[in-house]
Amino acid sequence: MRGAFALLALVLAASSGGAEEATVAITPAGGGTPLTLHAEVARTPAQQARGLMGRHELAADRGMLFLFPDEQPRTFWMKDCFIALDLLFADRAGRVVHLQHDAPPCPSVVRECPTYSSEQPAAVVLELPAGTAAAHHLAVGSWIRWE
Question: Cα separation of 11 and 16, whole Å?
Answer without folding.
Answer: 9
